[in-house]
Amino acid sequence: MLTVDRELSTAESALRALATSPAFATADLAAIHRQIKTLLASFPGADIIVADKAGQQLVNSFRALGEPLPKRNNSDVVRLIFEDGKPIVSGLFPGAITHRALIGVDVPVMNDGRVVYDLSMTFPAERFGALLSQHHFPGEWVGVIIDQNGVIVARTRNPEKFVGQPGGPILRQNIALAAEGMLEDVTLDGTLVESAFSRSPMSGWSVAIGVPKAVLLEDLHRWLWWELGGAIVSSLVGFIVAGLIGRRIVRSNLDLAESEARFKRLVENCPLSIGLVGTDGRIVYVNQKFVEVFGYHPQDVPTVDHWYRLAYPDEAYRAEVVSAWMSYLDKARAERSEIEAQEYHVTCNNGEIKTVSILGVWIGDQVLAIFDDITERKRLEQTLQDMARTDPLTGLVNRRTATEAFEAEFLRSKRYGTDASLFMIDIDHFKPINDTYGHIAGDQALVALATVLKTMARATDLPTRFGGTCQ
Predict the structure, then answer these.
(1) Residues forming beta bridges with residue 282, ordered by sequence position
(2) Per-residue pLDDT for 254 more than 80?
(3) Hey, what CATH class is 390-456 in?
(4) Which fold has domain 273-378?
(5) Is the pTM of this model over 0.90?
(6) Which CATH superfamily is 127-214 part of?
(7) What is the mean pLDDT of the chain?
(8) How far apart are CA 118 and CA 104, in angstroms?
(9) For residue 106, which of 120, 160, 183, 293 is within the disulfide window of CB 3.0 to 4.6 Å?
(10) What is the CATH number of domain 2-124?
């Protein structure tokens, strides 16, 4: 469920940042379309739609700007956006243009305290099928993602047959009653399974994993015959006593083996990097994702000291990290709580520096550390900040940023009795350029003027695109 929530929350954060663009206040659809295209470079396969209160699409990244567009197919979501002014994760619905099975994340675009547009990012259902595939479940297992309406969004087996259909009635009933749980169920293709599910409080979506009961019984019988055979060979003379005691031993061994196997499958298929550290500083275990993300194999980091030296080569920064981590360890142990996630800059084996969120938990005398590579998310956040503060065409700061800077300078000037200057520059006869040579040529003229302003400006000056031209 963590992977799905992270995908949806990242999309929501990106849309929230885009919704602050000044282009919405001026209804500059061309600028909005350019900003959307820039943002979608970080969301391959997705599309972004801008719609009005009636659900009429004004911009759709799937189509060129200016092409006729239909109304949105999920009118209920649009209505709720304008009524409540809160982000919404939709259920599965057919796209009005592509007719593909889509999922949408919608946020309101506000102006003067009221909703003026619905801004939506849509994903094909296949994207969430790919998220399930990342876990590499055994072939007999069934993994499924179900939306808040009980409809199957993704499925590991036969998705072409079942995506878009309601989930099984027993599973849906259990999901409605509890946020997580286990149950015996029959899948839509008639397989008896032991299932576990978890429902997200953020989106209302659920992830369920089903293991065929026949597979569980087969594994149990295999282990039982192996253990029982060993007991007979070891002690034929005392087989009566061994039989009485052996059943307990076999059951205990089975439970332990099953528990260890389940834990190993969990951590090996986990989309996050995981390491297990003993009290003596030895790194007992790292999963495959750890190797993939950082490039360090178990023999490269046999102890945490080796990890510290490789991951944090700068001595001053390493000392800071080690001191902070040790204090978090001591606090978590004393309070019997988890080690709260903190962000660190980790140097990988290839020299790349990644931003990583690291949290941990004490398991007896060992520490389980979980590493979440958030480098791409940080890069996206910076891109969104830049988009919110700069004009995408000219690279100058936008009207919102300039207004904030002017207000600050005005207050400073008033306090200290100093002067401040504001120049407003207009391009004469600019409309004929667009009419005669086209808007591309007009854009080139604006970029040329912006380049001149940036070249002439001093470090303390702030060239701005304030309106349709440059100031």
Answers:
(1) 303
(2) no
(3) alpha beta
(4) Beta-Lactamase (3.30.450)
(5) no
(6) PAS domain (3.30.450.20)
(7) 82
(8) 11
(9) 120
(10) 3.30.450.20
